[in-house]
Structures are given as structure tokens and as C-alpha cells.
Amino acid sequence: xxxxxxxxxxxxxxxxxxxxxxxxxxxxxxxxxxxxxxxxxxxxxxxxxxxxxxxxxxxxxxxxxxxxxxxxxxxxxxxxxxxxxxxxxxxxxxxxxxxxxxxxxxxxxxxxxxxxxxxxxxxxxxxxxxxxxxxxxxxxxxxxxxxxxxxxxxxxx
Length: 157
Fold this sequence. Notes:
alpha+beta, 157 residues, globular, 5 helices
């Protein structure tokens, strides 16, 4: 398993993966030493994340290999269908997966998403349109949603 640390506008980001794909992308809450030489298995991920932060990328094309239960993977796959610049609620996500009663399980799987930004769990909001819990902190979720918003001159939250 290869690992690297990069600097993003939201802090230091740790990326892990191998020839089978990217397994984790996580935001760190502390300063870390940035990796000098990016492992070849992670180069494309670093490049695409940088393009995203520069406003040049709205979709990711990466081999992903997250580790989780079958249900979690089903939720993470559904998250990838939320278009750039759009949001959906946990309830809508549960409905999309075919079980409204699974809303808590969907929220739990969303919170365990191991692929920050690439699997866009930040695009899931409360049914009333409010920002809800986010493992990276609500200020980061707000930043990401505003970054993706086509309405740059006003704040969404």
C-alpha cells in the first residue's frame, strides 16, 4: 500500500492506494510533512484532486478500491451519482437505494466514506436544506459546496 500527503486549500490530505485503486483519501486535522515524491499509483489521484481545487475538474476518473461492507459500498456508489454542484438529502439517498427506512444506515455509511471529495458525501444535506454532520467539519463541507456552486458571488449557507 502506497501513501502520500498533499496540501489542499482545506488542509493536509492523506491518500492511500495500490495497483488495485485508491483505498482512502482523508483530510487531516494536523500539519503533516508533504510527500516529496508521489508514488506512481497515486499520481493520477493527486493530479485530479489538484484540478478539482483549481476549479478545472467536476468529475473524477480513478480506480477506486474502498474497504467496507456491501451496504456501505452500495451507498458510496450512490453518492457518486450526485452531480457536481448539486445536493440531495439523506432521505432522497435512502429512497434512491429503495428503502426509506434505511435512512439512518445510509447516514452512517455516508459518514464512513473513506474517499473524501472523490465520493462526494459532502453533497448530502438535511431534508430541510441545512448542513448536517460532516466528518471533516462543517466549515469544510460549506467550503466544498460553495466551491462547487455555480453562484460564486453568494453563500449557500
